[in-house]
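In response to reviewer comment 3 from the previous cycle, which asked for concrete evidence that the modeling workflow produces usable outputs, we include below a single protein chain processed end to end. The sequence was submitted unchanged, and the resulting structure tokens are shown without manual editing.
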Amino acid sequence: MLQKFPAFAGVQGPVVVIVMDGYGIPKHDVGSAIDAARKPTLDRLFAEYPNITLRAHGTAVGMPSDDDMGNSEVGHNAIGAGQVYAQGAALVANAIAEGAIWQGGAWQEIVAAARAGANGKAGVLHFIGLFSDGNVHSHIDHLKAMVVQAKADGVNTVRIHALLDGRDVPETSALEYVMPFEAFLAEISHDGFDARIASGGGRQTITMDRYDANWSMVERGWRTHVLGEGPQFATATAAVKGLRDRHPGTIDQDLPEFVVVESDESGRSKPIGTIEDGDAVVLFNFRGDRAIEITRAFVDAEFDRFDRVRVPQVTYAGMLQYDGDLQLPKRFLVAPPAIKDTSGEWFSRMGLKQFACSETQKFGHVTYFWNGNRSGKFDGETWQEVPSDVVPFEQRPWMKAAEITDAMIAALQSGQYKMLRCNYANGDMVGHTGNFRAATMAIEAVDLALSRLLPAIDAAGGVALITADHGNADEMFELDKKTRQPAQNEDGSFKAKTAHTLNPVPLILYDNVSGGKLGLKPTESAGLSNIAATVANLVGLEKHAKWDDSLLVVK
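The workflow returned the following structure tokens.
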């Protein structure tokens, strides 16, 4: 059991952790939706309450290098676990570099299935995933390594179903990935080996839904990748160019689906990469939240979310196992981190009741990811999901901040919970759109929510830690690599940035109950993983031995 904290007996009321998703500390006022937003509540918090900055990217959250941005998955893992684990990108990169992935049973089963095929016909090895080097959900270098290895292992035909990014990388960068990759595939396609991009579309249009928010996205992906339905083009390069011509101003993540075709013997156009019986399929995303739904469509025998029309009998594998509790999928190429001794587990053991709330878009982050990639609740936990709107985020930048606040206030007023946590998705989800004005409104919505929530915390005799999982809305324009100033388009406008940032995030201690007795300790190494121990101290407990150090100062 956790021991009592000798320096502080703990606050009488609850401890609330508030995650302002996508709220980094800006380095430039130009291009920062956070600086541009009217946020009297946050301005007052920074002026009047203890606050420090935390590292929320790179090695501080388990990514391979400090050039890698953080993301909501690894950020919430670190906050909830109180520890830093090597995450998907690092795990996969190491497995490939060491060759361990090729020796694993899952890869060998995939290769064997593709070679064997069905009904006297050799199979095809299909790769589905996010097509960029953003390193948040996937990395194109991992895909390239698997294509090379598939050829070496005797697979004759490879088809790639490319989900265009424009979110974790520049918003209209698709051709910077598609064109060189198609050239690479053409170069390697000889001696009986045939590898081509077969289908694709924007990540916010097809396939990569999460948290059951919009199953129609997954259905469009299924019809595109499996059935070969959609606008037809001769190559993926032609598809991107053609779709941009048809949909001017649309960024990569929002481009419609496409199918690559060739002429058959009768001169009719035929998709080059439908998924058939006897084929093998690898979803090469390593991050789980946007991988679970399409995985279910392939492996769930009782699947009923949409009419699949045709269900090919395939050998399916994920890059990682995306849900350990549900064993989705059962076959995976690289083992995910085994996250143990999370704060939720140990607070539960201490008999402390916990409440978690967010809207659908971030619900899994304050539950599944917070609890160390665990789907089930710990004893004494209550989870409340607020259904997200199914509309473009820039059209409703306030999202569900008000409803989340309502739920948090009700939970505080109930007096049932010692620990509460919530996530306001606005800065992240709206920041990803690249719409500057909408992003300022998103931050203003969060500020308004805080103005309502903080008095409820006071009334309950509690304190709050206000933080973020990574930056996003703090940097809405691409920066020139030389000048580090916002880059400009040909028309003189600033070029929108839709990816996360490398900026630190805040940690604010909202405390009106200790009489100024409590503060926060700034350190160069402080990161998201230090929050769990800080929460433990605030309730009068020592941290678990595996957790990173607390940042609480008792004066």
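The chain has two domains: 15-87+339-554, 105-318. We consider this sufficient to address the reviewer's concern, and the full set will be provided in the supplementary archive.
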